[in-house]
């Protein structure tokens, strides 16, 4: 594929998608390349609805293929929250630190065996004619009671991957990208793009 717009203003996500799409897309564009690209309100009830809404809106506006994802953290003890509200768990404009602090507050005193969670991701690939395909990925883990690691973004410092004994913030990017919810959804997307 020659050009693909990744409809995200999140620099961490743009970096990850850049790594994951290396060798498959010649040029990755971002919303910064399209002044006037309309903001899309993520008011869908599911990750899939939000991903499609973002990708379709940008594809129709730019006339280019667009990839968008919606992803987040579902914590079992919190009955699936923060879910689609992961980026704004602590309110509109909340920082990663704000969201992490609220998550830790809501899980205060909850024992490790009841802190199971999963990262979920739905990637939508939409064409300028409005048609879309979606690809889902998820990864189970455990929420720690304190952050660990300096890498990653979002809830990464609190999300322990039991098989590795490390948080997403501690894992090297190449391992994180290979096993993550986003990486798993991307593998399905890559298979579709390569026709396999």
**Helix/strand-derived class?**
alpha/beta
CATH topology (fold) name = Maf protein
Give a count of the beta strands, DSSP E runs of length 2 or more.
7
* Shape annotation: globular
Q: Can you give the helix content as a percent range?
A: 25-40%
Main beta sheet, described?
7 strands, mixed
Q: What CATH architecture label applies? A: Alpha-Beta Complex
Biggest sheet, strands in spatial order? Answer: 2-1-3-4-5-6-7
CATH class: Alpha Beta
Strand content: 15-25%
Order of helix and strand elements from N to C terminus: EHEHEHEEEEHH
**Averaging pLDDT over every residue, what do you get?**
93
Task: Write a concise keyword list for the protein shown above.
196 residues; alpha/beta; Maf protein; 5 helices; 23% strand
Summarize the helices and strands and which ones pair or pack.
Blueprint: E1 3-6, H1 11-20, E2 27-29, H2 47-62, E3 66-75, H3 96-106, E4 116-126, E5 132-143, E6 159-161, E7 166-167, H4 173-179, H5 181-194
Parallel strand pairs: 1-2, 1-3
Antiparallel strand pairs: 3-4, 4-5, 5-6, 6-7
